[in-house]
């Protein structure tokens, strides 16, 4: 199949609440969960929201959105089993080591499209469009392939040729094919970026938030235009890239989407998978002090 990046598809993720302040909120979320869990599912919402309102002075809807969007769907900080809410392994590890980049590495490593965090209709649409990708893994693999060739990609290119490109999102295109298409368009002087079909937030928020989440892992560096690897994190980066070859952890196309309460089942299955950590992940995602340092070397001279 010939790669045509112009076949675009808006592949959304859960809209995070104040991602730019996530490093402030994460310890608060974790401490509340540690204090109240395990807890009956029918008591969880009110208990969590009441405690969070002591830290974040905002209206009830905003407090609720922190729980539903960030703590649950985006970050996988808890899961439900047998009508009891438990703190996830990811959260427990963070409470032990306070390694925020490792926490976000786990978030991005487990993420896939489609997933069980969105509404059933959204998941159905993705299945109908044959979406099947680990987007963060693919982006890291692309950035490494580019870095080996001393090439720096810009965020518009990653957005257009990966995060919004239907054939890539379907898992039908290789990293090499994507880089080839980008470089061929550069040669022709063609600059492509995601069109604004409705408004900027509608067309770009899911893209920008994926860059923000990946930046929180410490695996990439970015500025106003470009995005490149943090080469002090190559062990973790390679761990992601190796996993790109494996099938999605949960194949939602195999679910009977007409089954009674299927949305609830998909959500619980996803929660239980998404917040888990393996021993390998613990070792690979450790963040050294050295890796947090931004070297002064020219980012266009990355050595792999």
Fill in the keyword field for this structure.
single chain; 3-stranded antiparallel β-sheet; globular; 15 helices; 6% strand; 6 strands; 53% helix; 304 residues; Arc Repressor Mutant, subunit A; mainly alpha
Fold-level CATH name: Arc Repressor Mutant, subunit A
Cα distance spanning the termini: 30 Å
User: Mind describing the biggest β-sheet?
Assistant: 3 strands, antiparallel
What order do the strands of the largest sheet run in, or round the barrel if closed? 1-3-2
Output the structural class. mainly alpha
Shape: globular
Query: Stretches where pLDDT falls below 50 for ≥5 residues?
Result: none
Discrete helix count: 15
The CATH architecture category equals Orthogonal Bundle
Strand composition percent: 5-15%
Q: What's the mean pLDDT score? A: 94
Domain module tally: 1
CATH class label: Mainly Alpha
Q: What Rg is obtained from the alpha carbons, in whole angstroms?
A: 19 Å
Task: Walk me through this protein's architecture.
By secondary structure, the chain is mostly helical. It has helices at residues 22-36, 41-52, 60-74, 89-97, 100-110, 120-128, 135-148, 155-163, 166-169, 175-187, 200-216, 234-243, 262-274, 279-284, 289-292; strands spanning 39-40, 78-81, 84-87, 153-154, 220-222, 226-229. The chain has one domain: Orthogonal Bundle (Arc Repressor Mutant, subunit A). The chain contains 15 helices and six strands. A three-stranded antiparallel β-sheet has the order 1-3-2. A three-stranded antiparallel β-sheet has the order 4-6-5. β2 (78-81) and β3 form a beta hairpin. α7 packs across α10 (175-187). The mean pLDDT is 94.
């Amino acid at each position: 199949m010939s790669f045509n990046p112009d076949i675009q598809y808006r592949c959304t993720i859960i809209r995070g609440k104040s991602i730019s302040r996530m490093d402030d909120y994460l310890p608060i979320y974790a401490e509340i969960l540690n204090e109240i869990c395990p807890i009956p599912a029918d008591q969880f919402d009110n208990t969590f929201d009441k405690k969070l309102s002591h830290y974040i002075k905002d209206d009830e809807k905003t407090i609720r959105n922190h729980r539903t969007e960030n703590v649950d769907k985006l970050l996988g900080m808890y899961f439900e089993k047998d009508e009891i809410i438990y703190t996830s392994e990811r959260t427990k590890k963070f409470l032990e080591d306070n390694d925020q980049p490792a926490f976000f590495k786990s978030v991005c490593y487990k993420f896939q499209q489609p997933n069980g965090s969105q509404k059933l209709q959204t998941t159905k649409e993705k299945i109908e469009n044959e979406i099947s990708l680990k987007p963060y893994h693919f982006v890291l693999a692309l950035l490494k392939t580019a870095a080996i060739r001393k090439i720096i990609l810009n965020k518009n290119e990653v957005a257009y040729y990966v995060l919004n490109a239907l054939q890539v999102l379907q898992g039908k295109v290789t990293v090499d094919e994507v880089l080839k298409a980008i470089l061929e368009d550069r040669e022709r002087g063609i600059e492509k970026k995601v069109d604004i079909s409705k408004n900027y937030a509608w067309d770009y928020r899911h893209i920008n938030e994926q860059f923000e989440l990946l930046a929180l892992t410490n695996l990439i560096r970015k500025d106003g235009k470009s995005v490149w690897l943090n080469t002090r994190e190559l062990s973790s980066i390679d761990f992601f890239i190796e996993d790109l070859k494996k099938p999605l952890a949960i194949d939602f196309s195999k679910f009977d989407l007409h089954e009674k309460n299927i949305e609830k089942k998909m959500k619980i299955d996803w929660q239980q998978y998404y917040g888990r950590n393996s021993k390998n992940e613990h070792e690979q995602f450790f963040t050294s002090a050295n890796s947090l340092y931004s070297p002064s070397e020219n980012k266009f001279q990355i050595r792999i």
